[in-house]
Write a structure and sequence with these properties.
This protein has about 200 residues and is mainly α. The protein has helices at about 5-10, 20-30, 40-55, 60-70, 85-95, 100-115, 125-135, 140-155, 160-175, 185-204. Helix 1 (about 5-10) packs antiparallel against helix 2 and helix 3 runs antiparallel to helix 4. The chain is globular and about 55 Å long. The protein starts with a helix and ends with a helix. The mean pLDDT is about 95.
Length: about 200
């Protein structure tokens, strides 16, 4: 299922207002298709939904996680460090227009923030974190392409500054006892993720 149909099917469970649904989708599309986005675009969302579809049975509330995936990178500015916070606020602003409870909205907000802190408040947040970080544990070839896309996304950042910042990020993940929050992702991807991160760090 393409992202547009997936989103419209999701939102249609909470509102029958077609114009509103179109408006919500247009906001997503306008943001995720910004020219500077090389990795954090619709392709990234498609990646996450591939994992989502595989592990949907593990989720307590799949709709909340779906909304979190759609909105978690709606704001992406390479010069800012509050993208997740701003994305979470946009999700609240946008989704308060449809029939969602305050608890439902708060869970979306917290799951989006969890993609920055990597601290999970509940089981669904653990899966959300792992879907977002799954790319780190892919094959060395896929990971290498990912790292090139990230560098391209930050192409306006001088090489010296980029390397300094990237090394810090890589070391942060390498030093963690576990990158992944769920036992399943730890089993499948933890070792490969640590290897990929270490290889990139050494190459810098």
């Amino acid at each position: 299922m393409d992202l547009k149909n997936r989103f419209k099917n999701l939102v249609s469970a909470y509102t029958s207002n077609k114009d509103l649904i179109d408006s919500l989708w247009n906001t997503l599309e306008n943001n995720y298709t910004e020219k500077h986005r090389v990795y954090h675009n619709f392709s990234h969302l498609e990646e996450l939904f591939t994992y989502f579809d595989t592990y949907k049975v593990e989720l307590k509330n799949a709709d909340i996680v779906s909304f979190s995936i759609f909105y978690h990178d709606i704001i992406y500015n390479i010069w800012k460090k509050d993208n997740e916070e701003k994305s979470a606020l946009v999700s609240l602003d946008q989704l308060s227009k449809i029939n969602l409870s305050s608890d439902f909205l708060e869970n979306i907000h917290q799951q989006i923030i969890a993609t920055k802190t990597h601290d999970a408040i509940d089981n669904d947040a653990k899966w959300m974190i792992d879907f977002d970080l799954a790319i780190l544990g892919t094959s060395s070839e896929v990971y290498s392409n990912y790292s090139k896309l990230i560098r391209n996304e930050y192409k306006l950042v001088p090489n010296l500054l980029y390397k300094k910042g990237r090394k810090k990020v890589l070391q942060h993940f390498i030093d963690k006892p576990f990158i992944y929050a769920t036992n399943e992702f730890r089993r499948l991807y933890e070792n490969q993720a640590k290897l990929n991160l270490t290889n990139e760090l050494n190459a810098l």
